[in-house]
Specification:
Strand 20, helix 14 and strand 21 form a beta-alpha-beta unit. With 451 residues, this protein is α/β, with parallel strands linked by helices. The radius of gyration is 21 Å and the shape is globular. The protein has 14 helices and 22 strands. It has helices at residues 37-40, 64-67, 70-75, 86-113, 127-133, 219-232, 246-259, 273-284, 293-302, 309-317, 336-343, 362-367, 398-404, 422-436, and strands spanning 2-7, 16-21, 24-28, 56-58, 81-84, 137-139, 146-149, 152-158, 166-172, 175-179, 202-206, 237-240, 268-271, 304-305, 323-326, 350-353, 372-375, 378-381, 385-388, 414-418, 440-441, 448-450. Helix 7 (246-259) crosses helix 9 (293-302).
Length: 451
């Protein structure tokens, strides 16, 4: 059996792990690379194997860094089945269509305004190519055995993190391979705690926060302080947010603060069509989250929900104080860019970062103190107050990742640390070896190993 780390090794994006056994090829996740240009350029490179030779794709969840390369895979010849949970199918569809639309718009704008380095800017994939992916989905339930082949089966177990996110236990060649996907937090506001594996010969564990502990702070109090301080200055609060789960968590916290009369009655706006559509997925998948229905309904009524871009423009030019939740979470695209073009240079503005910011993204640059940022070919001076609420991360921290391994009944043959930048993964490797004495390694991008 061979394992090839095609993506998500040494980086938190582009997750793709290929399993090959007795002529069967299984791709665990099919993510898009994000962040620094050398990583983004990998999205344009062909896979080291023919997509037509892959039999199955098993998706852990619907974030772009885990599903965003599917249109390229299908366009280049993949005709197999894509297995995932029902919420993951719905979220993946939303995210891929949104991503394709943004890329088409960005390519059109780059060609129109001639700020692309290429003679003709092209999208990575189109809406039409996304539509070719959708018929290949096969929905499976948690904890049910799915037979992929006479001697290969898979079981999905809840990973927390976002709606539908699962870890995958793959039984193959009399061995059990466990792919964590992205692990959520035990005390997440909306998601149930991740299920810890009981057995596994080989563990493939994410390491996003492998070198960090989430601060033990009061998230609501932080939000309350940032919002009230900004409003006192007559400013606007912009919260770049991942449309799936993070946006809904922020909505819930803001609703709670308004119910407690701790923040003023100003406009609270969610301007992410995809984030608004995810609310429907929450409503249709009540068994996947902890949000009480009556709170959910009341929360939604509090927000102005913008889907039409004309309303975005009207909101931007309304200079009154307001709180805006807009995608994308790493400020790599989406409508948050339009808000930042107008507000990032105003000292009374506050930008609240609430999730992981990959290397090379605008979000990471802002957190690192960038004096200006480039948006659509133009530089904007950063005068806004840039703050971060680390306790809102949807990922388990180092302690959570170590705890996820705590219920294994037998010592695994090996643990591979994926989906993490090198320093984070290596620090987690040391901690695992110290705590459990598990043989642990950090694979390189493109590395192939035999089990």
């Amino acid at each position: 059996m061979k394992i090839r780390f095609i993506g998500g090794a040494g980086t938190v994006t582009g997750s793709k792990t290929l399993v090959e056994s007795n002529g069967i090829r299984i791709l665990i996740d099919c993510g898009q690379f994000q962040g620094i240009k050398p990583l983004r350029e990998l999205n344009w490179e062909p896979l080291p194997i023919l997509p037509s030779s892959i039999d199955f794709v098993l998706l852990t969840h619907g974030h772009l860094d885990h599903c965003g390369w599917l249109p390229r895979l299908v366009n280049q010849g993949f005709k197999g089945k894509i297995y995932c949970t029902n919420p993951t199918k719905d979220i993946t569809k939303l995210i891929l269509l949104d991503s394709a639309k943004i890329q088409e718009e960005d390519a059109f704008r780059a060609n129109k305004d001639k700020f692309s380095k290429h003679e003709i800017a092209e999208p990575l994939y189109t809406v039409e190519q996304v539509e070719q992916v959708l018929p290949l989905f096969r929905v499976i339930k948690q904890n049910e055995v799915v037979s992929l082949d006479a001697q290969i089966s898979a079981i999905y177990t809840n990973a927390g993190h976002i709606l539908g996110a699962c870890s995958i236990e793959l039984s193959i060649e009399n061995k059990i391979l466990v792919f964590s996907g992205d692990i959520g937090r035990d005390n997440d506001l909306l998601m149930y705690p991740p299920v810890k594996p009981k057995k596994g010969d080989y563990i493939f564990l994410e390491s996003t926060y492998g070198n960090r502990l989430h601060p033990d702070t009061n998230t609501k109090e932080e939000l309350e302080i940032y919002i009230n301080n900004t409003i006192q200055k007559g400013g606007t609060i912009i919260i770049p947010s991942f449309a799936v789960e993070r946006a809904q968590t922020i909505m819930y916290l803001l609703w709670q603060l308004r119910e407690e009369d701790k923040i003023p009655n100003i406009p609270y706006i969610i301007d992410t069509p995809m984030g608004i559509s995810v609310l429907d997925i929450f409503a249709n998948n009540k068994n996947w989250h902890k949000l009480p229905e009556q709170d959910f309904v009341a929360m939604c009524k509090m927000f102005t929900m913008i889907t039409d871009y004309k309303e975005t423009i009207e909101t931007i030019y309304n200079k009154n104080s307001k709180v805006i939740i807009a995608a994308s979470g790493m400020i790599t695209g989406g409508r948050v860019l339009s808000y930042l073009e107008q507000y990032i240079s105003l000292p009374e503005t506050t930008v609240i970062m609430i999730g992981y910011q990959a290397e090379g993204t605008r979000g990471r640059k802002l957190l690192e103190g960038a004096k200006d940022i480039k948006i659509r070919g133009k530089y904007y001076e950063v005068k806004a107050n840039i703050v971060e609420i680390e306790s809102l991360s949807a990922h388990a921290d180092q302690e959570g990742l170590l705890n996820w391994l705590s219920e294994l009944k037998d010592k695994p043959t090996k643990v591979f640390l994926v989906h993490g930048e090198n320093q984070a993964a290596d620090e987690l490797r040391i901690k695992i070896q110290e705590k459990y004495a598990f043989d642990t390694s950090v694979p390189l991008l493109g590395q192939e190993i035999e089990l």
